[in-house]
Amino acid sequence: MDRHTDSAFERLEIVETGRRRRWSEAAKERIVLESLSAPRQISATARRHNISRSLLLIWRRAFLARHDEPAPGFVPAVVTAEPAPAPQAATSMPRTEIVLRCGRRIVVEGQVDIAAVLALARGLETLR
Fold first, then answer.
1. Are 42 and 56 in contact, with CB atoms under 8 Å apart?
2. Measured between alpha carbons, how far is residue 59 from residues 11, 34, 41, 42 in Å?
3. Could you tell me where the DSSP H helices lie in the chain?
4. β-pair partners for 96
5. C-alpha span between 75 and 71 (Å, rounded)
6. If we measure between CA atoms, which residue out of 48, 61, 51 comes closest to residue 22?
7. Which long-range contacts (CB under 8 A, 24 or more apart) does 119-125 make?
8. Nearest to residue 102, comparing CAs of 83, 117, 88, 121?
9. Does 85 or 98 have the greater pLDDT score?
10. Does the pLDDT at position 103 exceed 90?
């Protein structure tokens, strides 16, 4: 038993498995933007770059947290009196009222086609 605890290693090898890679921030951002380019691209993008889906999701959360807009909050509000309405005579369109023999009325505002109004008046006169 003492032999195992007192023995020294004659040879020690460190074998790199290749699973631990380092990604630059630019590369991560490029991969995340690729995964955000269309719906349902997380798994396909992860396979294309030989990374796990969960690692890509971690990168996406970090990216979205950095680029997300600030949460909505309170903004200062100032209550003022309602402005007085503008005089209507200055801004209103010309208004014409036509009373037909049958008692019906046609009210026209703004610029209109005279021929269309006359056709409408004739049509209303023929109705009983």
1. yes
2. 39, 12, 14, 11
3. 2-6, 25-36, 42-48, 53-67, 88-91, 114-126
4. 108
5. 12
6. 51
7. 124/100, 125/100, 125/101
8. 121
9. 98
10. no
Q: Which two tokens stand for residue 89?
A: 């005579």
pTM: 0.41
| Distance, CA of 19 to CA of 39 (rounded, Å) | 28
Contact 43, 53 (CB under 8 A): yes
In the predicted model, what is the mean pLDDT of residues 31-48?
89
Return the bridge partners of 107, or none. 97
CA distance 73 to 105: 55
* Mean pLDDT calculated for residue range 97-122: 83
Q: Specify the amino acid at residue 117.
A: V
pLDDT in tens, 4-33: 555 666 777 776 666 678 889 999 999 999
